[in-house]
Write a structure and sequence with these properties.
mainly alpha, Arc Repressor Mutant, subunit A, 4 helices
Length: 123
């Protein structure tokens, strides 16, 4: 439904525009919040994954205050612990595979043990 405002000949293309003309708001900048399905969304992803909609992370890194570094470290630590327990890899191999120092590997394993102890004591 396209109409023309009688006073100045401007075209109004929809109910929002027509409501503005009726209220005399023709000179006011218009801002409309569209629903996601009404926008031209580009799924560009990020440095973690090429597509947002198929990303394996539990939360978007752009929603995290530190840019998702803590979440990525948590995922890395979990993969490291899985390799340590399931594959039986030693500290040197884990450090090399994950690109971190041996000290970091020991710290991750130690923190995991501490969390398990606290979980057993509380449970």
């Amino acid at each position: 439904m396209i109409g023309t405002h009688e006073d100045n000949g401007d075209a109004c293309s929809g109910p929002f525009d027509q409501a503005q003309y009726k209220l005399g708001l023709t000179g006011v900048a218009k801002t409309i919040e569209l629903l996601p399905e009404q926008t031209g969304y580009r799924d560009d992803g990020c440095y973690v994954h090429p597509h947002c909609l198929t990303c394996p992370l539990p939360h978007c890194i752009y929603d995290e205050p530190d840019g998702g570094r803590a979440m990525l470290k948590e995922l890395r630590d979990q993969k490291l612990l899985d390799a340590y327990h399931k594959e039986g890899l030693d500290v040197d191999t884990l450090a090399q595979r994950f690109g971190i120092s041996k000290r970091s590997v020991y710290r991750i394993i130690s923190q995991s043990r501490e969390h398990k102890k606290r979980g057993v004591q509380r449970g």
